[in-house]
C-alpha cells in the first residue's frame, strides 16, 4: 500500500507541491491529472526518491520512501516524462543493464527479459538497436525497463506524450494489465481522455494542491451533485422543456436542437423514474432519455476553475 | 554464445560492473561495425598489423625499447578523456541520467562503474605497446642486437613503467569523470578534460620545467621534472646524458610522492563526481 502524507516541496518561496495526501491499494491505477506545471512531476519524483520532500512523507508497504534507502527503489519502477535511450545498445542489452543495476539474479535475467518483452509486445525487437525503435516502441521499452525487477509500484510520468493513437491505445491496454497484475500504478497526464479508460482512482492537482482524490465515480458524484440528462423527442421539444421546468429537481435546460435538449437533475433514481413516467403519461414522443456521464475533462475543468482564477 | 558474451558472463554479478559489461559488448568487431562487414574488419586489422609489424621488425635495431613505454602516458592523456569524459555528460545529453539515478545503486558505485569503463582502453593501449615491444625484440634478435633488448633495466623497466601508466590513467580517469559530472554536454566535457590534461602535461612543464632542463643536470628544476607522468624517462635521460648525474634516491622519492599524489587526486576527483550525483539525486536537476 502506498501512503502519502502532507507531501510538500518548496523551492525558496515557491511551493511546487503543497501538503499532498493520498493512499493507494495494490491493483489501483491512479490517473494523476493536472495542467503543465501543476506539480505532477515533482510529486512523482518525490515518490521515486529522486527529490527530497521539504515536508511530509510517503511510504510503500510501511517502508518510508527515503532517498538514502537503496532497497526501497527495488519496489519502484519509474518512467520519466523525458527519457533517452543509449544509442549503441540493443533492446535486450538495455534491459540486461537495468536488470544488473536492480540486482536481478544472473540466471533469471534471460527469462525476465523475455517476459517483459512479451508483456510489452516487443519480443520481435529483442535483437534490434534501441535507436532504431519507433517512439511508441521506445515508450514500451522504457516501460519494460521499469518492469524488469518486478516492482510493487509504477510511476509513469506522461507515458503517452508524443504517441500516435494506436500506440496510445496499446499503452492503455498495457497499463490496465499492470493494474490487474496487482501493481500500484500512478499515471500522470494532462490529456484526460487517455486516463479515463483505465484509472480506478483519480487525483486532480493544480498549483501544487490536490483538489480532488478518490475513485472516479465517487469524485464525479461528490463534485457534480446535479447529473445531466439528455432528452430527444420526435417533436414538441419546447413544450416538453416547459413541462419539465414545472417539475421538482430540474434546472438549466440547454437546447441542442429544437427537439433535443439536456437539463440538470438533482433528484434520486426514483425521482428520475417518476419524471420519465410523467413525460410518457403526458404523451410526449420520447425517443431518448439518458444520463450523461460526467467525464474527466468536465470534472477537471470544474475542479480547477477556482484554482486557476 | 559469442566469445564476447562468454567474457561478459564471467564478470562478477555486481551492479557496479553495469558499464563494463556494455563496454565489452560494444568492443566486439560485430558491434563496432554496426553488425556489418565483420570479415572486412578482420582483414583490415590483419593488414594494419602486417604493415606496422613488418616496419617495426625491420627498424628494430634503431629503437630504444624501454623508451617506447613512455608513449603510454601521452596516449592516456589524449585517448582516455575521449573514452571517459562522455560518461556522465552523455547521460545528461541523452536524458538518461534520471533512469540511472532512480536505480538502487549508490552514486559512489555509479561513478565507480563509469570509471571502470577506462579499464578496457587502458589494457588495450598497454597490450598494443607491449606487442610493439615484442615485435621490436624479435627484430633485434634477428638482427643480432639482442643485447639492446633489456626491458628490465631499472629505469626503463616494463613492469614499473606499466605500474606508473596505471597510476596516471587512474588520475586521468578521475579527472575526466569529475569534469563529466559538472558539464552537461559531451563536447564540453571532452574539451575541458583534454584542455586541463594537456595543460598539466605539456604546457605547464613547457613553462616551468623546460624538458631541456633535464639535460643540465641535478638542478631543482631537473628534480621537479620527475613529477611528470613521464618522470621515469626524465630520470633515465638525465642519468644517461647529464655530466653530473642526479641524486637518484631523491629523484625516485619525488617520483613516488608525485605518483601517490596522482592516486590521491584521482580518488578525490571520483569522490567529487559521486557527491555531485548525490546532489542531483537529492535536489533534482534540469535535463
Radius of gyration of chain B over all CA atoms, rounded = 21 Å
Report the major sheet of chain B.
none
Radius of gyration of chain A (Å): 24 Å
Strand order of the largest sheet of chain A: 6-7-8-3-9-10
- With helices defined by DSSP (H or I, 4 residues minimum), what is the helix count of chain A? 10
Give a short synopsis of this structure.
With about 300 residues, chain A is an alpha/beta fold.
Keywords, separated by commas or semicolons:
heterodimer; A: 309 residues; alpha/beta; Rossmann fold; Alpha-Beta Plaits; 2 domains; 6-stranded mixed sheet; 4-stranded antiparallel sheet; 10 helices; 29% strand; B: 287 residues; 0% strand
Provide an overview of this structure.
The complex is a heterodimer of chains A (309) and B (287). Chain A is an alpha/beta fold. Chain A folds into two domains: 2-222, Rossmann fold (3-Layer(aba) Sandwich); 226-293, 2-Layer Sandwich (Alpha-Beta Plaits). Chain A has helices at 40-47, 91-101, 109-119, 135-147, 165-180, 193-196, 216-223, 237-245, 269-281, 296-308; strands at 2-11, 14-24, 29-33, 55-60, 63-64, 76-79, 153-157, 184-189, 201-206, 209-215, 227-233, 250-257, 260-265, 286-292. In chain A, helix 2 packs across helix 3, helix 3 (109-119) packs across helix 4 (135-147) and helix 7 (216-223) packs across helix 10. The longest helix of chain A has 16 residues, at 165-180. Chain A is elongated, with a radius of gyration of 24 Å. With 287 residues, chain B is an all-alpha fold. Chain B has a domain at 66-122 and 151-282. Chain B has helices at residues 3-10, 18-27, 29-32, 38-58, 65-68, 71-84, 86-93, 97-101, 107-116, 119-142, 158-182, 186-208, 220-224, 231-241, 248-283. Chain B is globular, with a radius of gyration of 21 Å. The model of chain B has no long low-confidence stretch (mean pLDDT 80). Classes of the chains: A alpha/beta (309), B mainly alpha (287). The interface between A and B is medium-sized, with 35 and 28 residues.
